[in-house]
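Hey,
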Amino acid sequence: ENERINNAYQYVASSNTITVYCNLEDVAASRSGDESLRPEPSEAAITVQAAAMDALAERLRARTDSSYIKSLFYRIDPAEMLAVSSFIINNMPYFLGEDDYDRMDTLLTREAIARQLLVDKNVLTSSAGMIVRNNFLYDPLQMTGGLMRKLQNFRIGDQFRLYDDHLFNEENQAVMFIDCAVPASETGRNAVFLDSLQSFIAETEKEFEGVTFETFGAAEIGLTNSRQIQQDTVFSMTLAVIVMFVLLIYSFRSGRKILLVFMAVLFGGLFALAMLNIISGDVSIIAVGISSIMFGIAINYPLHFMEHYNHVPDSRLVMKDIIEPLTIGNITTVGAFLSLVFIGSDAMKDLGLFASLLLIGTILFVLFFLPHFLPSRIRNTSAKNDPSVEDKSLLGRFVARPFEKNRRLVLAVILLTVFFGFFSGDSRFETNMQKINYMTSAQKKSFEKMMGLLNKNQHVMYFVSEGKDLESALVENEKYASVLQSLADDGEIYRIGGIGGFFPSQVRQARQIEIWNKFWATHRDSVLTCLHEESRKIGFSEGAFRSFEEMVNREWKPVDLSHFDPVRETLAKNYIIEKEGKAMIVNLLYTDALRAEELEKRLNECGSSAIAFDAGSITRRMISSLSGNFNYVLYVCGLIVFAFLIFSLGRIELSLIAFIPLALSWIWILGMMNLFDIRFNIVNIILATFIFGQGDDYTIFMTEGLMYEYTYRRRMLASYKKSIALSALIMFVGMGMLIFAKHPALRSLAEVTIVGMFSVVIMAYILPSLLFRLLTMKKGKKRLMPVTLKNLSGMVYAFLFFLVMSTVITLIGWFMFTFGRTTEEKKLKYHRLLCRIAHFVIYRIPQVKTTYRNLSGETFDKPGVIICNHQSHIDLMCIMMLTPKLIILTNDWVWKSPFYGRMIRYAEYYPVSNGIENATGRLQEAINRGYSIVLFPEGTRSADCSIRRFHRGAFYLAEQLNLDIIPVMIHGVGHILPKDEFMLRKGRIHIQVMPRITPDDKRFRKDYSPRSVDVRHYYQAEYKKLSREIETPDYYTDLVIKNYIYKGPAVERTVRRNLKKHNNYVSAIAAMPDKGEITIQNTGYGEYALLLALVKKDLQITAIEPDSDIRALAANCASVPENLKFVEFI
């Protein structure tokens, strides 16, 4: 449908017409705002303006090449009008309508005939008689009078008046329409013609004193836009180039490096042009022009290379460090721009291809040619750490700041994201295309005048009937004529402009002839008799009206459409469009602007062979299509980028770190544009997608820099951040300088650039670092096991389950103990509920396998003091699942917890903040009811899972109450949910109930104080024995693998493959001694050495690794214990 509209509109719109207004000072002075008070122009004024228009037209015809002008319309040629009217009179059966036949009844009475013949005689005997003689002889009774009035209005419309055969508007200005042969888009040729026109106008104004001319037209506006764009571009780009050179000189301090940067981009541009020509055979200049902005993205690649070369002046080492982020960034951005081929526009497809090929050509130059132009000055390997040297430059010091650690800044970014998010959904497109065109003040006045005069403040709508050929198009148009007339009768259409009945189809001709014949069958004899008699009375000769008699008596038949060429070539040429295999008939509908959209919708429902539209609807459809296409492209682009990020970075977490800033920066862009009333248009929306591509490169470089530092513990991020800053400044300066432009479209580019670059740089600098450090760091130290999406989702699941179950259990307790009596049976039921839920939870922790051992067959029927080592929050649940009859001694924060404090109190758990010696009485009561007392003698969770010093409270309580001590040992919970992290890990839990320690057990001293020491030693020995059994290579495999994630997909894949290939090195590790010192080599990425050191904690291991990068990677693993060190050689 859009294509149908575009095809029709390019013919009906006056995009290649220039309007010229002729003013006379005296006439201009007499103008009034009220049309009714405007005096008719004097004859002298008319003569002067008409003569001035004639003179200008003569100059145009005589001194302008015919290739510039199709036609001039400023006066009605009487001879042409007479010829057309004669043709219509001579063929009146084809043209007369029903209203004409209705009127004929009053024209054909004897009195009317006599009266009309008398008028005819007076006209024929006047000076004009010879001119109109033929028309009167063919139509003596003026049966075509209605047609002639329609013809007059058809030719000039009711907006204009004729004076001395010249066209004047309602402000009494002579008007000329120049139909240009050159399209408005060809500003070069139009400039030649318009310059000539202005010189002709100057000559004419000089010739006629007091006469001035105004001109207005799309070609003139196009030329003004072109010249203004050139002026703005030269001014802005001059400033931009100066500032960019200053930036590059400040950063590189080398003309050679700057030249190489521009060589890379130039190579990319030439490569793109060549490949595009090979692929498609032609190149869209518009696409190439718009994609010149892409050079701002392409320059990223040599900039990153050069900036890194400043730190590491060895091309080979630079390539090694930077090839991965460069290629990943290039491929994702190329994929994003290739998504433009999905837009239904050849220019956009060319743009997508050219932009992609430009980036490919530039990266090829950077990777394959640029290193050869740069010397390698490093001669020793110690210089490899040069990136860690602090950049002392002002820009280097600024960008090296850890912005993500500034809590106020991070909070501001979060709040602004939420704030902009509220406004981001209301982004608007500029539907008024005039607002992105530049017009001088004089042109604006002329435009307003033209719109006001031509449309009389009415809205113009086009209604186009279509057919496979002219005949079928005419038939369709005639079919819809009644619909249009009905709307006009109802007042929904003020006026209909078009061919009307002046170009009938053969179907209409047949119908008209039938009506003609039917009419004259009843009127022929009486009319002709009366005509003969009355004409003789007045003095006309016999046979004077023979032509009329022959026409009435003639047998009329439908004729070929070529018969109406005299009408088509004069009246209908702007309303009939014929192309190969298609024809269109155009109607102009004048209606109220407020109901134009509703009328358009109704007319478009009339039938598939017609379409209604106006200039506004074309823009709206284009914007809607553009918006829809770009939304589609945005989704496709985002999907391509995200998919390749996963493929290249190897982890969905890293992909999200690189992608989330892009999504949030887009929210910022939309939000700020809405706040500052910056609207998308067909120009700046393309730039917005380029900025998206720019941000893609930035976040990838930031993510790669973070991975590099995390992997090797070498400074690299500062170098990447500086090159990002340089790239952003160049783009910001290059496009941002257009803010000084006068042209609205160029200024909108600058506005989007300022908003967009600010957003993507803020997000690139803060979010990747913040998110990456959240995954890998905790309180300034590396996490032993970085957070993964799987662990995070498991933790969220467990936490939500805990909250829900705590709430449910609390509510159950509230109902149980609020209503009715609190009985022992109720209390026991509640404890059993807690026991069952604890058992359910412990055996269903995500990614965790639980093993329970009861070495002595303990039934917990006899009350005792249950003690347990303390490693994690999960310990409590592990104890609660053992038996329902438990009273757990807690600290104050657990007792008062808002989540489960009330549940703890319902379960009769007891706080010991006032001292355990004060609790013996109450605890004795619980023991008498068969409940055991639970304490964690360490008092706090052990961070390294070792057995810490035992407090004496549990042993004092056992002594005072004369109870057995039931030792329970838990292994693995400290690895699954460590003290310092609130994040579940994959692992195993072992719960082991050991034999009771009776008050008279001879293995331990009797007094509670030394007994606590002896029991701790017992725990240490048993825990070491249990650890040696459980902590096998298989147990630590997941921890080892997690030490190698976020260090690149190749590293992680290799480590996983080696562990699987060697069955987690079970046999090799089993063959190693438990104590002593050993030296090993060929450890892969260090995974074998790390696994060995974790299993054999008392074995001192030295791993030889000659490759400095692998050695740094292995030594920098967070879980490397003290008994392992990596060396280059021994």
